[in-house]
Automatic annotation (TrEMBL):
This is AcrB/AcrD/AcrF family protein. One of its GO terms (cellular component) is plasma membrane. Keywords: Cell inner membrane, Cell membrane, Membrane, Transmembrane, Transmembrane helix, Transport. Pfam families: ACR_tran. It is found in: Cell inner membrane. GO terms for molecular function: xenobiotic transmembrane transporter activity. The chain crosses the membrane at residues 12-32, 336-353, 360-381, 387-410, 431-451, 463-490, 528-548. It is a multi-pass membrane protein.
Length: 800
């Protein structure tokens, strides 16, 4: 029995079924998410931990190592790397692609919990983790600026109000705020006044910690009323803390203002955000992995007027970067190409068949096949992206083949005088197996792509599956809808005089066939020459395969550039800022640049920063992003002790994603640190000489300045000074320690205690530090310790 027979004999039901597929396909098309590339739920997780004031070596030994030992017990880790810098550790884990990311996340959390008892007790916050999507670059960057409010106040508005509201927008996965830190009351201690008044650091710290203690007070109750108990124990601003009594000296109160400079500032002094020529707080908006990027950005833009109403009138909220213009243009181009491809197929069919009724059949069957493909794509969780739309464009040429085979066979019988219904039944039955074998053979070509491993396999799985589904649906349409339409639309038409256009086309086609015949006869006559040509073609293809440049993914022009700034090792934040500003001013002046935003003092350290550069629209510039970068490299100022690397922003980057300043990463591994220190500069210099490479940099930073205290333990013991006391005093003075919390209705703020910066500009200040011995006496640090100047790494990296 023919598969096509029930559908040919039931034209109304078949038509309604086709109409239902078309409607559902259009609905699925508008419901599918839009993204530049297929969704990659990649099992890549980053664990981050912080410990204020800790050196890179301390972070590596006391934080990174316990976490690595615990995380190393998780099955399925392909690569684990850690990088520890001042006060911060990041552990980067790449899992096997078959590992479920949600399972991996649960196992990572369990490993962190298991390592908690081994971590320093002074860590304010436990380690955190997040999944890193290789294509999770920010879809939008917002900038908050003001001529009146300080950076801390802007950061408070951004983190307390804007980030919370934006995170509630459908499709938004994460909102990162940078460029400053929360407001704080800073207490800069004067070591000379502390010594003169005999006040210890722990005394000041304990007084600050106790002053804002929040505990339930209870209530009063009688038979008629109830009263809540409250106190005025909360101090909020620096002026409130200045009069705080921290100790008594000979019966006189020692107030905080007597031994410290108290002022309103921010938690960290080593952050700086910028937007074009202004200081700013920057918000990076990332989407969820399966979200529609265009709808997400449009939803955020629709919300901006409402967010602006929540801000003070002197605060401006601007869109510093928008990822969607190039995506909209690329998808529009792909959709237009798809429409053009369908129209060209119809035109070609019309030229060859030369019948309007016959042309209507593939003109209907091809769109129905594509719309049916959208339905399956929707249920498979696919998105509309350049890869899937490319598959549909390629599929357009395939899906028309099955219908043409059936159509041509049915027309052959009709032209012989057979009734259209009988011709459709007979013609469809004859070629049914042929059509099935054609479709199966086409799908078989893409089977290797379906089972390809790695990240490339994940990317092209959607391409191969979309193409295979389109061919499969085309097979179904060619055996159901196509023969039914042949039976209803085709008629036997007597021969008529051809039009001038038809005669011209027929003459052209006859000459084409005649030319092909002559070439075929030549090939058969000169077999040796034909085989030699074939062999030469194969050899040429092998050569071209070797010679053609290769890469992970074609470099895109997304209209955005990422910049990575780094000052020399050991450069202070204050010294790095002018160098950063020089680069920023040069970039802003580039005629191809629309906006520049970013911030410094992030996880990369106080001497680093990153730039987010939005280029002008394609219609307003004549150069590609790569060409603009090459011009920028020539025009950027040469600044001693600083460098800026520029790379085009891509939708996907392999390895550690967008945190790296380069497109490629080469790792040197050794169990001997001295061997690494010897070979790293040699390898870097050798790579820098290669003409194919630019901006060759090393992440190894071994020349940071260090002051090493050499403690005479015997002298310290003799003076009744304990090692833990020494560490506590140094921590109180030089670690920018958060010693108290200020509670408000919307957020919590910190009281940060440390030494006044003017007393911490030279190692000689260590001679003025006093330690309280166990007998209560003040002992100068110089009585049992000396110091020497040396170098230390600014970051410590582990692998495995």
């Amino acid at each position: 029995m023919s598969l096509s027979r029930p559908f040919i004999l039931r034209p109304v039901a078949t038509s309604l079924l086709a109409l239902a597929v078309a409607v559902m396909g259009m609905v699925a098309f508008f419901l599918m998410p839009v993204s530049p590339l297929p969704t990659l739920d990649s099992p890549v997780i980053v664990v981050r931990a912080s410990l204020s004031g800790a050196s890179p070596e301390t972070m590596a030994s006391s934080v990174a190592t316990p976490l690595e030992r615990s995380l190393g017990n998780i099955a399925g880790i392909d690569l684990m790397q850690s990088s520890s810098s001042e006060g911060s550790t990041s552990i980067f884990m790449i899992f096997d692609l078959d590992k479920d990311v949600h399972t991996a996340a649960r196992e990572v959390q369990a490993a962190i919990n298991a390592a908690r008892p081994l971590l320093p007790s002074s860590m304010k916050q436990p380690p955190t983790y997040r999944n890193v999507n290789p294509s999770s670059t920010p879809v939008m960057v917002l900038a908050l600026t003001s001529d009146l409010l300080g950076q801390g106040e802007l950061y408070d508005l951004a983190s307390t109000i804007l980030a919370q509201k934006l995170a509630q927008v459908r499709g938004v996965g994460e909102v990162t705020v940078g460029g400053s830190s929360l407001p704080a009351v800073r207490v800069d201690l004067n070591p000379n006044m502390l010594n003169n008044m005999g006040v210890s650091l722990d005394t000041v710290r304990n007084a600050l910690a106790a002053t804002n203690s929040v505990r339930p007070k209870g209530f009063l109750d009688n038979n008629e009323y109830q009263w809540q108990l409250a106190t005025n124990g909360q101090l909020r601003y620096a002026r409130d803390f200045e009069n705080l009594i921290v100790a008594w000296n000979n019966g006189s109160a020692v107030r905080l203002r007597d031994v410290a400079h108290v002022y309103d500032s921010t938690e960290s002094l080593y952050n700086r955000g910028f937007y074009n020529t202004e200081q700013a707080v920057v918000l990076l908006v990332r989407r969820q992995a399966d979200a529609n990027i265009i709808q997400t950005v449009d939803s955020v833009k629709e919300m901006l007027p409402d967010l602006a109403e929540l801000l003070p009138p002197q605060v401006r909220l601007d869109v510093a970067q928008d990822r969607t213009p190039s995506i909209r243009a690329a998808l529009h181009e792909a959709e237009l190409t798809l429409v053009i491809a369908v129209l060209l197929v119809i035109v070609v069919v019309m030229l060859f068949l030369q019948r309007i009724r016959a042309t209507l059949i593939p003109a209907i069957s091809v769109p129905i096949s594509l719309l049916g493909t959208f339905i399956v794509m929707y249920f498979l969780g696919y998105s509309l992206n350049t890869i899937s739309l490319m598959a549909l464009i390629v599929a357009t040429g395939f899906v028309v083949d099955d219908s043409i085979v059936v159509l041509e066979n049915v027309m052959r019988y009709i032209e012989r005088g057979m009734h259209p219904m009988r011709a459709a039944l007979l013609g469809a039955r004859e070629v049914g197996f042929t059509v099935v074998s054609m479709s199966v053979s086409l799908v078989a070509v893409f089977i290797p792509l379906l089972f390809m491993g790695g990240l490339i396999g994940r990317l092209f799985l959607e391409f191969a599956m979309t193409l295979s589904v389109a061919i499969g649906i085309s097979l179904i349409v060619s055996l159901t809808l196509t023969p039914m339409m042949c039976a209803q639309l085709l008629r036997h038409e007597p021969k008529r005089r051809k039009s001038r256009v038809q005669r011209i086309w027929d003459a052209f086609f006859d000459r084409l066939v005649s030319g092909y015949g002559r070439m075929l006869r030549f090939a058969i006559r000169f077999r040796f020459l034909t085989l030699l040509t074939l062999l030469a073609t194969v050899v040429l293809n092998v050569y071209l395969y070797i010679a053609v440049p290769k890469g992970f993914f074609p470099e895109q022009d997304t209209g955005m550039i990422q910049g990575f700034f780094r000052a020399d090792q050991g450069t202070s934040f204050a010294a790095a800022v002018p160098k950063l500003e020089a680069f920023r001013k040069a970039i802003v002046q580039n005629p191809n640049v629309d906006t520049v935003s970013g911030y410094s003092g992030g996880r990369g350290g106080s001497n680093s920063s990153f730039f987010l550069i939005q280029l002008k629209p394609f219609a307003e510039r004549t150069q590609s992003a790569t060409e603009i970068i090459n011009d920028m490299r020539k025009s950027l100022p040469t600044i001693p002790g600083a460098r800026l690397s520029l790379v085009p922003q891509q939708d996907i980057r392999a390895g550690r994603g967008g945190d790296s300043a380069g497109s490629y990463q080469y790792d040197l591994l050794s169990g001997d640190l001295e061997t690494l220190r010897k070979w790293v500069p040699q390898v870097r210099q050798a790579m820098a000489t290669l003409p194919e490479l630019v901006d060759v940099q090393s992440e190894a930073e071994e020349k940071g300045r260090r002051v090493e205290l050499i403690i005479n333990r015997e002298s310290a013991t003799r003076l009744n000074v304990e090692m833990s006391t020494i560490a506590g005093v140094l921590n109180n003075l030089f670690s920018q320690r958060q010693v108290s919390t200020i509670y408000s209705a919307l957020n919590q703020y910190q009281v940060v205690m440390g030494i006044d910066v003017k007393y911490a500009q030279d190692p000689e200040v260590l001679k003025t530090v006093q330690i309280i011995a166990s007998d209560g006496k003040l002992v100068p640090l110089s009585a049992f310790a000396s110091f020497k100047i040396g170098t230390s790494p600014l970051s410590v990296s582990h692998q495995g």
